[in-house]
Design brief:
By secondary structure, the protein is of the alpha/beta class. The chain folds into three domains: about 180 residues, NAD(P)-binding Rossmann-like Domain (Rossmann fold, 3-Layer(aba) Sandwich); about 230 residues, Orthogonal Bundle (N-(1-d-carboxylethyl)-l-norvaline Dehydrogenase, domain 2), CATH 1.10.1040; about 190 residues, Alpha-Beta Complex (2-enoyl-CoA Hydratase, Chain A, domain 1). The strands form six sheets. The chain has an eight-stranded mixed β-sheet with strand order 3-2-1-4-5-6-7-8. A seven-stranded mixed β-sheet has the order 15-16-17-18-19-21-24, with helices on both faces. The chain has a three-stranded antiparallel β-sheet with strand order 9-10-11. Helix 22 runs antiparallel to helix 30. The longest helix is centred in the middle third of the chain and has 19 residues. The termini are far apart.
């Protein structure tokens, strides 16, 4: 297998620069090419401009700004001979077949034998791309279709041609999986491949049915979002995120190669207001707005019929309440416009996906994987059909006069997925069930859960056996917010691990590890003035994290997505962390007017003061913690987290989320040999001098307009906590002393009207209130 150590990316636009930056994140040296600028005396100006955009991008394309040193900007006029240096040439230029073919002929003059070549196209057939090119080129060529933004979107579709060497596909699949962290799906050379073929159809069906059922954009997004297992952007929010004008181009690019009878043509026209929006410059988030916009400081949404904007209204929908109790079937069966919308969108989208078999794949898992990895659906189309029930789905399609795809007739009353002999199997179009294939080294908790009984748990969390004497605690509340039930399940998991197992993992396949302590519960306690109840919940939280820290066996957390507030405190209580490369970590409690109270202040002080007995040294570390917690700092990559000591050198990183659980399990097993828990941490109080030093920092923030009135209240309370309360400077402190101060400060702040307002505002809007 060819080693890939150096890559040339041709095209420094959005996709090319995204591929280049992510290659640099993986430690790969990159040559980034674009044309010579006609407006600058610097030949590499276009590629150099792409480097600046990488540094300025939000969310950040680079895991560490220093990674940009691995990228060399070049131009296509002077620097093509340097292609001989690279192992892979990734082309990401304009979607014009004549320009691409001309480039490939130039590439062929300079690339060395065996150098891989790929195109990032999603619209042009591979056969047309390589028409007229020598077999030597065609044998090393394939399509690698990344999704934007490259760092964050997990799907990579790879398409081989009839002459492509198997080693090319094997090399790129393995490299992009292990080094770039991509979920690689092998696709056939069909229009739109898998992700966009189904995903764009679903978006078009969503906007058409929203108008047909008379729904507002807010109502449609609320339904075609989390209740369907689709990201909370919904359909109109995602349209704005992608770009309304860009979506028009994507739809056209799919229309052209599809035969007239393909159902995609029925949804392609969309709705009239879209053309009106684009003509007026409303192209989505990148422009003046789209279906949503900000106007005079308030958020507005467009009326789909009139085209006029009005204030956004949070919908109160009975169908959503029904789905919370009865799931997907309750949603699509609800007897109102919302239920009809949900059914019509799913009926059209799922039947379309089913109609593509066996044209695009022989089994459902490639399609489901593409929608999960590329569009962040929690369940793919065929998993959704199974959830609705194949017979029910098929009968309702027929009753509504919709075509029933042949595979739905062929499968009878079976399901697309089943568990047999402790194996997850899928239905193939030849009528045979075969095991669902995963790449070697991939371990998903979702797969294990389908084949095993849980060991313990409740509505908030579950414990699973993941093999080799290791168990895994999975949080599974909304956004994995941590409640007293979560801590009860974690305490039980710690006890069970100690009796029967070698190590405990904390991990889930959900988008986020945990957004923190359950704010709804905290707000309810505050409004009821149930201080003893809230204090008891915090005590249990602290005790559970402390028990994890000092367990006689390794506790390894394997987070991905967000690990904030209380979720991050669970990581701080773990022996080690195996973090996904796109993790976001931090203690953000001050944004809602309180302080960390699950051991977060204590653990960060320990990491920055190192058990020192020198008050001056301790004060320097405590000032750093005051800044991190007081300003609610977060880290958006493991490298940044190391600098802030959110992660430590002993922690590890995984690029591919599907390998996170297996690598965390191995880390835990490696730690079991002669394992011993850490020594108890010790601290000293910093007294009034420490509080004065923190007050000086706060005064500067006030002067600059960064800290508002309640920020000062919260920060002063935090300073008192970090300095040991009212204890004199130099007085010894133990862990329990600081835990007591955390709870005391949390409860004191939670009782203030300003903090209650902050919590309520965060729950209502998802935004921090600066009061």
């Amino acid at each position: 297998m060819t080693d890939i150590n150096k890559v040339a990316v041709i095209g420094a636009g959005t996709m090319g620069s995204g591929i280049a930056s992510h290659l640099s994140n993986a430690g790969i040296e990159v040559l980034l090419y674009d044309i010579v600028s006609g407006e600058s005396g610097t030949p590499n100006a276009i590629a150099e401009g792409a480097l600046q955009r990488m540094l300025d991008s939000s969310p950040p394309a680079l895991m560490d700004p220093g990674n940009i040193q691995r990228i060399t900007p070049l131009n296509l006029r002077d620097d093509l001979p340097r292609l001989a240096e690279v192992d892979w040439i990734a082309e990401a230029i304009v979607e014009r077949i004549d320009i691409k073919r001309a480039l490939y002929r130039e590439i062929e003059q300079h690339r060395r034998a065996g150098c891989l070549v790929s195109s990032n196209t999603s619209t042009l057939p591979l056969g047309m791309l390589t028409e007229g090119l020598p077999d030597r080129f065609r044998e090393d060529f394939c399509i690698t279709h990344f999704f934007n933004p490259v760092r964050y979107m997990r799907l990579l579709e790879i398409v081989a041609g009839p002459l492509t060497r198997p080693e090319v596909i094997h090399t790129l699949t393995d490299f992009c999986d292990r080094k770039l962290g991509k979920g690689v799906v092998a696709c056939r050379d069909t229009p739109g491949f898998l992700g966009n073929r189904v995903g764009v159809f679903a978006l078009q069906a969503g906007i058409i049915e929203a108008q047909a059922q008379g729904l507002s954009v807010e109502a449609a997004d609320a339904i075609m979002g989390r209740p369907m297992g689709i990201p909370k952007t919904g359909v109109f929010g995602l349209y704005d995120l992608i770009g309304v004008d860009l979506m028009l181009d994507v739809v056209k690019s799919l229309q052209l190669p599809l035969p007239p009878e393909d159902p995609f043509h029925q949804v392609a026209p969309g709705i009239p207001v879209i053309a009106q929006m684009v003509a007026a410059g409303y192209t989505g988030n990148k422009g003046k707005g789209g279906f949503y916009r900000r106007h005079h400081g308030r958020r507005e949404a467009i009326d789909l019929d009139s085209g006029e904007y009005r204030p956004v209204q949070r919908p109160d929908l009975a169908a959503l309440r029904a789905s919370e109790q009865g799931g997907l079937r309750a949603l699509v069966e609800y007897p109102d416009a919302c239920g009809r919308f949900a059914w019509r969108v799913l009926a059209r989208t799922l039947s379309y996906a089913a109609s593509l078999l066996p044209q695009v794949a022989d089994s459902p898992s490639p399609v489901d994987e593409a929608m999960s990895l590329g569009y962040s659906w929690s369940r793919g189309p065929f998993q959704l059909i199974d959830a609705l029930g194949i017979e029910t789905f098929r009968d309702r399609l027929a009753a509504d006069g919709l075509a029933v795809p042949p595979v739905l007739e062929q499968i009878g009353d079976q399901s697309f997925y089943r568990v047999q002999d402790q194996q997850l199997q899928e239905y193939h179009c030849d009528g045979v069930y075969r095991p669902v294939k995963r790449a070697e080294g991939v371990l998903r908790l979702t797969d294990l859960k389908a084949t095993r009984q849980r060991l313990s748990g409740n509505a908030a969390a579950s414990l699973w056996d993941v093999g080799e004497g290791v168990v895994c605690l999975e949080f599974h509340t909304k956004a994995n917010a941590l409640s007293p039930q979560s801590m009860q399940a974690m305490a039980e998991a710690l006890e069970i691990t100690g009796r029967n197992h070698r190590a405990l993992l904390i991990h889930s396949d959900a988008p986020h590890f945990s957004v923190g302590f359950n704010l709804e519960y905290a707000l309810d306690c505050a409004r009821r003035k149930a201080w003893s109840e809230l204090d008891s919940a915090l005590r249990d939280f602290q005790a559970t994290c402390l028990a994890a820290k000092y367990a006689p066996y390794p506790v390894v957390a394997a987070p991905s997505g967000l690990a904030l507030g209380g979720g991050f405190e669970v990581l701080l209580g773990s022996d080690q962390v195996q973090a996904h490369s796109n993790i976001t970590l931090g203690l953000v409690e001050t944004l809602v007017g309180v302080v960390p109270a699950g051991g977060g202040c204590k653990e960060m002080l320990h990491r920055w003061t190192h058990n020192t007995n020198d008050p001056q040294a301790a004060q320097q570390g405590a000032l750093k913690v005051f800044n991190l917690i007081g300003m609610a700092r977060t880290a958006s990559s493991p490298g940044e987290a190391l600098q802030q000591r959110f992660l430590l050198e002993r922690d590890a990183t995984t690029m591919n989320r599907d390998r996170l659980l297996a690598e965390a399990r191995q880390l835990a097993l490696d730690r079991t040999h002669e394992y011993s828990p850490p020594e108890p941490a010790s601290f000293i109080a910093l007294g009034q001098p420490g509080r004065d030093a923190m007050g000086e920092v706060l005064d500067k923030l006030k002067t600059r307009g960064i800290a508002g009135p309640h920020d000062c209240v919260v920060s002063n309370a935090l300073a008192r906590l970090l300095c040991g309360g009212d204890r004199p400077r130099g007085a010894p402190l133990n862990e329990q002393d600081l835990l007591d101060l955390e709870r005391e400060t949390f409860l004191e702040l939670a009782a203030t009207p300003a903090s209650i307002d902050r919590i309520a505002h965060m729950l209502d809007s998802g935004q921090a209130l600066r009061n």
